[in-house]
Automatic annotation (TrEMBL):
This is DUF600 family protein. It comes from Paenibacillus azoreducens. SUPFAM superfamilies: BH3703-like (SSF160424). InterPro entries: YezG-like, YezG-like_sf. It comes from the Bacteria.
Length: 104
């Protein structure tokens, strides 16, 4: 279970990294899943910038193709859902929301 969870946490971090089109110092991820539905979002802080950027603002702020961005967002949600399923399959307490932080 622990290896599968670590793999999914890694995929979440890698996917977020792919979604951020600039160098970043940190991000805060939130995923909400209930019965296979929900949503994912994150805030990130670009290097040498004081303000955080909301993930859903990325396509407009950085002129990113919305279809490509949405594919990554869907992968992020699917991975979050897979993580929840691993918890459930192993008798862990069900959760609705997960928070994940990474700093460089």
């Amino acid at each position: 279970m622990e290896k599968k969870m670590n793999d999914l946490y890694r995929i979440i971090a890698e996917t977020i990294d792919q979604m951020i089109p600039v160098e970043w110092a940190e991000f805060y991820f939130n995923g909400e899943v209930e019965n296979g539905e929900g949503g994912v979002f994150f805030f990130f802080k670009p290097i040498n910038v004081d303000d955080y950027v909301y993930s859903l603002d990325i396509p407009n702020k950085y002129n990113i193709n919305s279809n490509e961005y949405n594919q990554l967002e869907n992968r992020l949600f699917k991975t979050t859902n897979d993580l929840k399923n691993i918890f459930l399959e192993n008798g862990q307490e069900p959760w609705f929301s997960i928070h994940y932080e990474t700093y460089l």
